[in-house]
Write a structure and sequence with these properties.
It contains 4 helices and 7 strands, in the order H-E-E-E-E-H-E-H-E-E-H. It is an alpha+beta fold. A hairpin with a 6-residue loop joins strand 6 and strand 7. The longest helix is centred in the last third of the chain and has 14 residues. The chain binds zinc ion. Zinc ion (ZN) binds next to loops.
C-alpha cells in the first residue's frame, strides 16, 4: 500500500513530464500547468490533488497506467522506482507485475537533457541563507 506522500509525489513527478490524470474513467483530463513553485507545490497542483483525494482516487488514473489512484491506496499495490528511468511507478505487491511502465509511451524519455522531475526542496536551508544575508547587511 502506497502512502499519501508517495502517491502525491508520483502524480507530481509525472505531471512534470506532461502526463495527464484521467478523471472519472475519461470524463476529464487533469494536468496542472505548473507543479512546483520554489520549495512548494503550486496551488494549482494542490487543488488537483484535493480533487483526487476527495473521491478517494476512484476511477482516476495516470494516462497509460493500469492502476487507479484508488488501487495505489489498496494493499495490492505500492509505489517503487522504475528500473528504466527511476521515476516513481505503481508496483504490484502480490501477483504478476504488469510489464508496462508509465514511461514506455514517452518517446523522449528517459532524457538526461531535461531537468529531472523533483519534489519541492526543504526551505529551511534557504531561510537560513536569507537570515544570514539580512544579518550581514546591518
Ligand atoms: Zn520508467
Amino acid at each position: 500500500m502506497a502512502s499519501t506522500t508517495q502517491v502525491k509525489t508520483y502524480l507530481a513527478h509525472w505531471f512534470q513530464l506532461g502526463k495527464k490524470l484521467i478523471w472519472n474513467n475519461g470524463k476529464a483530463e487533469l494536468l496542472p500547468e505548473k507543479v512546483i513553485q520554489g520549495d512548494r507545490f503550486t496551488p494549482e497542483f494542490e487543488a488537483c490533488w484535493e480533487k483526487v483525494i476527495s473521491i478517494g482516487g476512484k476511477d482516476c488514473y495516470l494516462e497509460g497506467s493500469s492502476a487507479t489512484i484508488e488501487d495505489l491506496f489498496s494493499s495490492a499495490w505500492t509505489i517503487d522506482q522504475c528500473a528504466r528511468c527511476a521515476m516513481p511507478v505503481p508496483v504490484v505487491e502480490v501477483g504478476t507485475q504488469p510489464l508496462d511502465c508509465a514511461c514506455s509511451d514517452l518517446d523522449n524519455w528517459p532524457n538526461t537533457e531535461l531537468p529531472a522531475p523533483r519534489s519541492p526542496v526543504s526551505s529551511q536551508a534557504q531561510l537560513d541563507n536569507i537570515s544570514e544575508r539580512l544579518k550581514t547587511k546591518k
